[in-house]
Design brief:
The protein is of the alpha/beta class. Helix 4 packs parallel to helix 12 and helix 5 packs across helix 7 (about 195-200). It has 14 helices and 11 strands. Strand 2, helix 7 (about 195-200) and strand 3 form a beta-alpha-beta unit. The protein has helices at about 5-20, 55-65, 85-100, 110-125, 150-170, 175-180, 195-200, 220-230, 255-265, 300-305, 320-325, 355-390, 415-430, 455-475, and strands at about 140-145, 185-190, 205-210, 235-240, 265-270, 295-300, 310-315, 395-400, 405-410, 435-440, 440-445. It has a domain at about 100-355: Type I PLP-dependent aspartate aminotransferase-like (Major domain) (Aspartate Aminotransferase, domain 2), CATH 3.40.640. Bound molecules: pyridoxal-5'-phosphate. Pyridoxal-5'-phosphate binds near residues 149, 242 and 273. Belongs to the group II decarboxylase family.
């Protein structure tokens, strides 16, 4: 396969992608294949001789597309938004072509330097405190991780190391393992499963604290938990607050939690995986007030900022907290400039890293901040349109306040009837949504996901839901 093939096939691929996205609403939002469908469609081992490009491209439709749930179909309303855009796709092509592994500055200086500048651009868009901004002389800076789960884990591990070092200096009789056995981390009962998992991976206790009646973690609950643990001789070291929880897009009380973390000298990490993108809009920025207490902050441009997966933005307030935490320095990775520059290998779990900042650069330049703000506003407006439709029917209720692009709703009545409604909606297949549990209440989550979702799609979704709810109610009454 040479560059002539690439030019020819590449043009066909670009056409295929543009046609796919232009017509994605004609495909079902949820794949209907059965497990194991794919192996029946392709040979059981790799070909000895090359296949023809035409056959490979043809097989995308035959083999792959039936097994795709089309997230960018405007009738896909499950999970949270996931981003894509032509600028992001173009940048990924370039990144793949350059194919550098930017673990150190010298491994490709542009890869490191663009990432530093892009993370500063983003930090300024969010109006993060200057501590996080390299170009403003901050002690910290940003790094692109693959996912919010990795960002939480990296932050937790950095906090763990920091506390172990500190405890050892204060209690010379304790070794690493004594200290580790006493460490405690905290998060709310609403936080994403990846936070609990980070605790499991790092082998530390993780307390899931009870959120209030708005599913928000409050400072007094955290304070009490920390004091109880200290009284038992344990060592509180890490709190993960969530802005925009996964079940209902609730916001922990950052100012209260932040003040407690400061008093107790505990590392505060903020997980704003979904909602973080909205903080580029001045009217939503106040949800981030209290970020000044955080040691680390993360959100996913790959969710709601039109940057294709993967691009999870993590800022650390103090670079040394992360670069000293995982520093192993073999000769083959050393270079002459390493005392003057950032080597992102110290800021993450893997060694290898892709040139992901290209996606941010292309997206931010080719859309501009104003467009991205309008994009967020449109999604929030669409969520409110859906909310109004739900409110217009007394058989339904809105479960939690609609703040971003997520509406939590249900039929008034039992969990069973709502489970039945959800199953009926997804079996019908015209739209796709997923449920969540809020305490013991089964709710339906309606998210604005696809970039091109319009008011017509909201009306359509509501009509489908009404039609199927009537069917479910009828069946339950007879
Ligand atoms: N945190 C929150 C609040 C989320 O909503 C999600 C996913 O939706 C995650 C973390 C996990 O994100 P990722 O897939 O980037 O690890």
């Amino acid at each position: 396969v040479d560059s002539n093939d690439f030019r020819k096939w590449g043009k066909q691929m670009v056409d295929y992608v543009a046609d796919y996205l232009d017509n994605v609403e004609k495909r079902p939002p949820l794949s209907k294949v059965e497990p194991g469908y794919l192996e029946k469609l392709i040979p059981s081992s790799a070909p000895d001789k090359p296949d023809r490009w035409e056959d490979v491209l043809g097989d995308v439709e035959r083999v792959i597309m039936p097994g795709i749930s089309h997230w960018h179909n405007p009738n896909f309303h499950a999970y949270f938004a996931t981003a894509n855009s032509y600028p992001g796709i173009l940048a990924d092509i370039l990144s793949d072509a350059i194919g550098c592994i930017g673990f150190t500055w010298i491994a490709s200086p542009a890869c490191t330097e663009l990432e530093i500048v892009m993370m500063d651009w983003l930090a300024k868009m969010l109006r993060l405190p200057t501590d996080f901004i390299v170009s403003e002389g901050g002690s910290g800076g940003g790094v692109i991780q693959g996912t919010a789960s990795e960002a939480t884990l990296v932050s937790l591990l950095a906090a763990k190391t920091k506390h172990i070092i500190r405890c050892k200096s204060e209690n010379t009789e304790m070794d690493n393992y004594d200290i580790m056995s006493k460490l405690v981390a905290y998060t709310s009962d609403q936080s994403h499963s990846s936070v609990e998992r980070a605790g499991l991976i790092a082998c530390v206790r993780m307390r899931l604290l009870k959120s209030d009646d708005k599913y928000s973690l409050r400072g007094d609950v955290l304070k009490e938990a920390i004091q109880k643990d200290k009284a038992k001789g344990l060592i509180p070291f890490f709190v993960c607050a969530t802005l925009g929880t996964t079940p209902s897009c609730a916001f922990d009380n950052l100012k209260e939690i932040g003040a407690v973390c400061e008093e107790e000298d505990v590392w505060l990490h903020i997980d704003a995986a979904y909602a973080g993108s909205a903080f580029i809009c001045p009217e939503f920025r106040h949800y981030l007030d209290g970020v000044e207490f955080a040691k680390s902050f993360n959100f996913n441009p790959h969710k709601w900022l039109r940057v294709n997966f993967d691009c999870s933005a993590l800022w650390i307030k103090d670079r040394a907290d992360i670069t000293d935490a995982f520093n192993v320095d073999p000769l083959y990775l050393k270079h002459e400039k390493q005392t003057e520059v950032t080597d992102f290998r110290h800021w993450q779990i893997p060694l290898g890293r892709r040139f992901r900042s290209l996606k941010l650069w292309f997206v931010l330049r080719l859309f501009g901040v104003k467009y991205l703000q309008e994009y967020i506003r449109t999604h929030v407006k669409l969520a409110h349109e859906f909310e109004a439709l739900v409110k217009s029917d007394p058989r339904f209720e809105i479960v939690t306040e609609v703040i971003m692009g997520l509406v939590c709703f249900r039929l008034k009545g039992t969990n069973e009837i709502n489970e039945k409604l959800l199953k009926t909606i997804n079996e019908d297949g015209r739209i796709h949504i997923v449920p969540a549990n809020l305490r013991d209440t089964y709710i339906l989550r309606f998210a604005i996901v696809a970039a091109n979702t319009s008011s017509n799609d909201i009306t359509f979704a509501w009509e489908v839901i009404l039609e199927l709810a009537e069917k479910v109610l009828h069946e339950c009454n007879h």
